[in-house]
Write a structure and sequence with these properties.
single chain; 446 residues; alpha+beta; 6-stranded antiparallel β-sheet; 3-stranded mixed β-sheet; 13 strands; globular; disordered N terminus
Length: 446
């Protein structure tokens, strides 16, 4: 019986692999078509644009039909949509937003089967109420609204049967297709993103680990006037019960139709949480896509989904703040030396200090002003520059290494810039860094 008929992840293992495997075949056909049209006299730019459009259409169509690794990859990619050319990404912005927030649901009988396996045959006795229809669904699980036996409204997150197998299989297959995604934005390398998703699979599949991380965040932010992290009520390996938070949607909705005042205020809260949580909780929320951040009616920002975290006891490494301050000050030699010392530039690699500073400008430019306005246009310009063939672009990119200990920090930093650019928010980014990033304002740490 296929997973479709059982109500698990969409499609049999063979069917899922076939749909993903069809992507490069389709690309080969489009590339051949492009060659033919160039011979027929069509301009190269026009042919590339058509190949990109058709590639995007097929990629987003397949990702939208699947869960598991394909869905998670789609969610991870969706936070970078602000960097893609408007003429390409415009038609797909709505489908990418949906990838951030929703996926098809499990049937009722399967929900009961999973809950019996996790909490026993009498699992319903733990709840005063349990809504059969999920209120949210994502890459590896779905969420039900319920009332715990003590009267507390709760959210019940249930993992899809077969999620582990599908997640691993999809990510392996997508890893083989990484070059295809470069068609959408030449020079954008998704291999590190895929490698990181593969490395984090086991942690995200174990809801007991997520429960521990969420409990630590909830304790750190208990009673906070700006943020709400739901308390953990109960958990098992494949089910997680937490307190319910009321919201009308996520930051994805604000990106779609929020006022500028909402964009600025929530962008500020979003940035402060991501940069401030290592200091307060010793943990970094490492899944920054908008669906995990929920504006509440009282003005606070609710945060959910703690399956991916980086453990940063004592906060961000102070060297990050020091390097960022040196970059803002224009001290290219100090930045180059510091990056080399941290392993971002390997010992025998030769690269000009000025080229490195120019290449990393997107990381520190928002810190050069007291108030910075993020935008899709700004991010596209940055991506275009750093992926260009020149010394400041791919010539330098090929010489930069990403040490494993910085992988999640890099993901969050880039993801946050992507979301802030989608929000087109104006934020006092420099002040946030001064308050939350060790070493940024302290010259004594050089």
């Amino acid at each position: 019986m296929s997973d479709d008929r059982k109500g698990g992840l969409p499609g049999s293992a063979f069917g899922r692999t076939a749909r993903l495997a069809a992507l490069p075949v389709g690309y080969a056909g489009r590339a051949t078509l492009g060659v033919g049209r160039r011979i027929a006299g069509r301009p190269a730019d026009a042919v590339l644009a058509e190949v990109q459009r058709r590639t995007a259409d097929q990629i987003f169509s397949v990702l939208g039909q699947l869960k598991g690794g394909a869905m998670k990859f789609g969610q991870a990619m969706s936070i970078f949509e602000a960097a893609l050319p408007e003429e390409l990404i415009g038609p797909y912005r709505e489908s990418l937003t949906k990838l951030q927030d929703a996926a098809p649901a499990m049937p009722v009988a399967l929900v009961d089967q999973v809950m019996r396996g996790e909490f026993g045959d009498f699992w319903r006795e733990e709840f005063a109420e349990f809504e059969q229809t999920p209120v949210a669904a994502a890459s590896i699980g779905q969420v039900h609204r319920a009332v715990w036996k003590d009267g507390r409204p709760v959210a019940v997150k249930i993992q899809y049967p077969g999620a582990a197998k599908a997640l691993r299989a999809d990510l392996r297959q997508i890893g083989r297709l990484s070059r295809l995604f470069g068609v959408l934005a030449p020079g954008l390398d998704v291999k590190p993103l895929i490698a990181e998703l593969q490395a984090r699979v086991e942690e995200e599949l174990d809801y007991s680990l997520e429960a521990a991380a969420q409990a630590a965040f909830a304790e750190a932010y208990a009673g906070d006037p700006d943020y709400v992290v739901p308390q953990v009520v109960a958990h098992s390996e494949r089910a997680l019960v937490t307190e319910w938070i009321d919201s009308d949607g996520s930051l994805a909705g604000v990106i779609a139709d929020g006022s500028q005042a909402e964009r600025d205020r929530l962008g500020n809260l979003y940035a402060r949480f991501l940069l401030g949580s290592p200091r307060r909780a010793g943990l970094l929320h490492a899944d920054p896509h908008p669906g995990n951040f929920r504006p509440l009616a009282d003005g606070r920002l609710g945060i959910v989904d703690f399956g991916a975290v980086a453990r940063l006891d004592g906060g961000f490494p102070p060297v990050i703040g020091v390097l960022l301050r040196q970059a803002v000050a224009g001290d290219a030699e100090a930045v180059s030396a510091g990056l080399r010392a941290e392993g971002f530039i390997r010992p025998k690699v030769r690269v000009e200090a000025e080229a490195i500073s120019a290449y990393i400008a997107p990381f520190f430019e928002p810190a050069t002003l007291e108030s910075f306005t993020f935008s899709r246009a700004w991010l596209r310009d940055q991506l275009s520059r750093v992926t260009s063939p020149g010394v400041e672009g791919m010539g330098t990119a090929m010489k930069v290494n990403l040490p494993p200990e910085y992988l999640l920090i890099h993901r969050v930093w880039m993801g946050a810039i992507g979301v802030l650019s989608q929000l087109e928010a104006t934020a006092p980014f420099r002040r946030i860094l001064v308050e939350e990033l060790p070493g940024f304002a302290d010259e004594g740490q050089d």
